[in-house]
Amino acid sequence: MAEDFSRNLVKGYKHWEIYVHENHGYLGRCVVWCKREDALDLTDATPEEQAELFLVLRNLREAIGKVFQPDWLNYSFLGNETRHLHGHFIPRYAKPKTFSNIVFEDKLYGHNYKTDRSFKTSAELLAEVKDKLKSVL
User: Which residue ranges does the UniProt annotation give for the motif Histidine triad motif (predicted)?
Assistant: First the structure.
């Protein structure tokens, strides 16, 4: 794994793992990571990986819906910075959402998301989000 997400592991499957993303400017943002070391491109996923990916995404969609009630979801499989098969799962919110006494505002709702690299995410916030998701996955 090019990046070390291990402390943010939410759930593991046979072929995929779900991690809470380090930058939590979008409440509930997760990374879905293919466990196969040589996996690079989404279209190279094996039939088993493909099938399980859709199960993982459905499970994550349901869990995020229960915990945070987003208005929309974005799925992004880019690979520009990290050359490994993984996707970003980004909940989107039409109105500000408060969680753990932090107000999350999706200023680009209805448009492409953009990571706010200045957003400071505490270890406590990540642990709280991870625990909430673990409880429903």
Answer: 84-88
